[in-house]
Every structure is written in structure tokens, then in C-alpha cells.
Amino acid sequence: MMDRNFDDLAERFAQNIYGTLKGRIRQIILWEELDQILATFPNAALSILDAGGGIGQISAGLAQRGHHITLCDVSEQMLIRAKQHAKEQGVDSQMTFIQTSAQQIGEQLENPVDIVLFHAVLEWIAEPEKTLAALFDTLSPGGVLSLMFYNVHGLTLQNLTLGNFGYLNAHMKKRKKKTLSPDHPRDPADVEQWLQNVGFDIESKAGIRVFSDFIRDLPPSANGEEGIIEMERRYSRQEPFMSLGRYIHVTARKPAIKDEL
After folding, report:
1. Which end of the chain is more exposed for a tag (fewer CB within 10 A), N or C?
2. Confidence grade of residue 222 (pLDDT, cut at 50, 70, 90)
């Protein structure tokens, strides 16, 4: 098992992830989650690490709000696109770009950060708990991890509805290596246990794309894409739909240092 480097798929990633309704839903739910996180901090510029940040759409948006961003990625091609995107958005002066892994970024940070973004990376790495521990160490006490990961239950449900029983019986192992389908879909129960083992307190969860991947033909009364987005937002934080999301977002906080009596 090895961590995935996206140098060979950077262009496809940019087009297929962000240039679709799926990407739009992902961005909307993530921003709602981030707004809730930001509201727990003082109204001041924060230090934010985007670990495995790809082309940096979310972090560039945070930089536009006045926050200071460090974006790291192992992929040189992703960093080239992230720098270009930041320049286009006029926030390149507020962002620092480092080619390194999430596991090693702590060695290059001068100070702890307030927030860590770790979005759609956990499913591509070989040692998830060790990586979460490394990110825990980059946070200041009271800091927050915004974690989004590919959910094995959502993937299982989709393949059940498609009748891909052979794929399920093969434990959903990929036949092709160069695809955007994650290498290691994660079980939410495992992820929560890893977070707790590391020392995080889990504060909230949300599902991303809890039903829209299963839609084939929408009636006119569904109001097209806007209707889909409305329903995704409505059910993203309700069980059992939340736990069946294609992705799960978890807000986890590093405990603050308590004043000694």
C-alpha cells in the first residue's frame, strides 16, 4: 500500500471533481461546515493548513476572507494549478505552497495552526491513523480539523443499486490503477476511532452527496440541479442519510489546555 500522487491525473481531477454538479454539492456542504467552524473562533485572521490541498479552491476562498493559508501537496502538478488558481483569485500573497506530504508538513511549519483542512485525502493514504496523529500535532490547543473522507458505505450502496455484485464480492478492489476512484474507501466507525485514539474530540458530522448519485431521470417538479442541492442540504445532517453519503465530513477539535486551579 502506497500513498497516491496525482501528478498523472491532475487535469482529469480538476475537470471531473470541480466542474460538475457533484463538485458543486461538495463545495456547498463543505462551506456550510466551514462557516460553522469559523464561527467558533474570534473574528480575526486565522492560520490554516490545507493538507493535501490539491488545486486549493477551498483554501483560496478562505484566503479571500483574510486568513493565512499554507497549502501542501505531494503532487507538483497540483501545486502548479493551486498557485495559478490563487493568482487568478488575487490571494497568492496570502498563501504559502509547499511540496510535501501531510505526514511531513509539521516539520516545515514555524508555528501551530488554528485549522487543518484534510479533504478527500484519507482514502488515498496507506497509514491513515499515523497521518491524523501528525496533523493533530500541527494544531494549536483548541484548533479544529475539517476532515472529509470517501465513505465505504456510500460506495457499497451504489454498487448494490447497480447490481455490481462481482465487484462487491471482490471486496471492491480496483482493476485500473489510474482512476479517480479512491484506493481505500473508509469506514466511518474506523475513522471516528482513529480520531479519538489520536486525541480529537468529535463535534459534528455531515454527509456529502447522500442521494444525488442515484438519480437517473428527474421529473420537472424536482426543479433540476437547484432542487437536488436543496434536498442534499436538507438531508445531509440527518440519519440514516448522513451515514450513506458518498463523502463524510467530520469536525474534530484538539482539546484546549485547561487553566490550572
Report:
1. C
2. confident
| 73 labelled ligand-binding | yes
Q: Is the peptide bond before 240 cis (omega within 30 degrees of 0)?
A: yes
Give the pLDDT confidence score for residue 215 in this predicted structure: 86
Burial class of 145 by CB neighbour count within 10 A (0 to 12, 13 to 18, 19+): buried
Is 246 labelled a binding residue? no
141, 254 in Cβ contact below 8 A? yes
Q: At what angle do helices 57-64 and 21-38 cross, to 10 degrees?
A: 40
Quote the cell numbers at residue 59. Answer: 483554501
- Annotated ligand binding at 102? The verdict is yes
Pairwise pLDDT comparison (179 vs 80), residue with the higher score: 80
Cβ neighbours, 10 Å, residue 38: 17
**Is 245 flagged in the annotation as binding?**
no
pTM value is 0.89
- 53 is annotated as contributing to ligand binding: yes
Supply the pLDDT for residue 180: 63
Residues 6+ away with beta carbon under 8 Å from 9: 178, 180
Q: 30-34, 73-77, 94-98: which has the minimum mean pLDDT?
A: 73-77
